[in-house]
Specification:
- The chain is 35% helix and 16% strand.
- It is built from eleven helices and eight strands.
- The strands form two sheets. A six-stranded parallel beta sheet has the order 2-1-3-4-7-8, sandwiched between helices. A two-stranded antiparallel ribbon has the order 5-6.
- Helix 5 packs across helix 9 and helix 6 crosses helix 7.
- The protein is globular.
């Protein structure tokens, strides 16, 4: 009798202001197919009670993900998936836990080998929403005369910018659950060392993205080419607008590993 190989374990990492809840459609589809799926809330996100204005480093922000990867058995690897700013958490994890990651999949995500180390990194990996007007609401944990420590897109702009191709009920749900994210922690993230290329990477482009625009995604892909690339006809949030296509691509990558 042929031994049945256990199906992959996916760890899905949300972007700034989101939470594990963002992935509810993807988690459902993948668990129905027999896969193990973990959707952590990073610090200050989802149901985590932390104040984003007090989270000043990516190490602190990523603690929930670090705990998951640290607790994995020696013989287990995961498929790590990151959306938007969650790509920074993926790259940090690659540097720290390469032996625990089978493949890292960036979904419309910031993919910078060295983090925000240069002006070009900022140009390629930071959203520029100025064309939409005054859309951001900032928190100032050290006073209004100091640089902001947290950020969230104002509610009246969220659907138009983040979810414009998805169902209305999903953008309504998101407007109830989005929280300010730790801006300082992400802006200050830089990566050093030789571990960045130890893990296979896949990039899934979001072709109608108004947050991390397609030309920014292309620039990051050119500068740090992944092993494989796919494209979705989606907005910034394909877990809402194209969940079947996105889950299909994730499972296709998983199947290609064996």
């Amino acid at each position: 009798m042929t031994e049945r190989k256990e199906k992959a374990h996916f760890v899905l990492v949300h972007g700034i202001g989101g939470g594990g809840w963002c992935w509810y459609k993807i988690r459902c589809l993948m668990e129905i197919s027999g896969y193990k799926v973990t959707c952590p809330d990073l610090k200050s996100a989802g149901v985590d009670p932390s104040d984003p204005n007090h989270i000043l480093t990516l190490e602190d922000y990523d603690q929930p993900l670090t705990q998951i990867l640290s607790a994995l058995p020696d013989d287990e690897k995961v498929i790590l998936v990151g959306h938007s700013a969650g790509g920074m958490s993926l790259t940090k994890a690659i540097h720290s836990f390469a032996n625990k990651i089978e493949v890292a999949i960036y979904v419309g995500a910031t993919m910078l080998k060295h983090g925000f180390s240069t002006d070009q990194d900022v140009k390629d990996g930071s959203p520029d929403l100025s064309e939409f007007g005054d859309v951001n609401e900032y928190g100032h944990g050290f006073g209004v005369d100091q640089p902001p420590t947290s950020v969230m897109i104002k509610r009246e702009f969220q659907r138009h910018i983040i979810y414009h191709m998805g169902p209305q009920e999903d953008s309504t749900l998101a407007s109830m659950l989005l929280r300010p994210g730790p801006l300082r922690a992400l802006q200050g993230a830089k990566f050093t060392g030789e571990g960045a290329d130890l893990v296979r990477r896949v990039y899934i482009k979001t072709m109608h993205d108004r947050v991390l625009k397609p030309e920014q995604q292309d620039a990051m892909i050119r500068r740090w080419p992944p092993a494989q690339m796919f494209a979705l006809e989606s907005d910034h949030s394909p877990f809402f607008s194209t969940p079947f296509s996105l889950s299909g691509l994730l499972l296709r990558v998983a199947d290609s590993l064996h």
